[in-house]
Amino acid sequence: MLAQINIDVDLRTMPLAQYWPEYDTRQSDMAMIGWHADTEDTANFFQYLSFCFDEETGAGQYNYGGYCNEEIDALVTEADSETDLEKRNEMLREAEAMLYEDVGYITLHWQNLAYAAADGVEIEPVVNALDFPYLGDLVINRSDD
């Protein structure tokens, strides 16, 4: 698709074990990464993907493009200690708007989730509002045809 807009691409695919060391040393002009905050907290996204890189603290560890806005970093850090949830949410929304205005990075690909089952297995929906599978409520009805 990038070639259609005159961007030459030399696509390299590799197993994860080889990918992460190259990702960490920024071996290419662009890279693919998926992200889901294990804490389900928006601040997690900023801390790892858009904070100014800081090797000592690990901030911005996966900020591949090297984007840095210290004002956003300070706002998100302040939000981390805010106990009023509405105020905290507003602070994070403000940080997101700033990141958007800066065009800190450009998302080129959004992975669609796919789920499948073997023939004869009917699976009740298990994906929650975050489009994240929760298998604790998985119900399998097997029909023996």
Automatic annotation (TrEMBL):
InterPro entries xref list: SBP_5
- Keyword check for Signal: yes
For this UniProt record, the keywords arranged alphabetically read as follows: Signal, Transport
Family of this protein: Belongs to the bacterial solute-binding protein 5 family.
Name of the featured protein: Uncharacterized protein
Q: Which organism is this protein's natural source? A: Vreelandella olivaria
> Could you read off the lineage of the organism from its UniProt record?
Bacteria, Pseudomonadati, Pseudomonadota, Gammaproteobacteria, Oceanospirillales
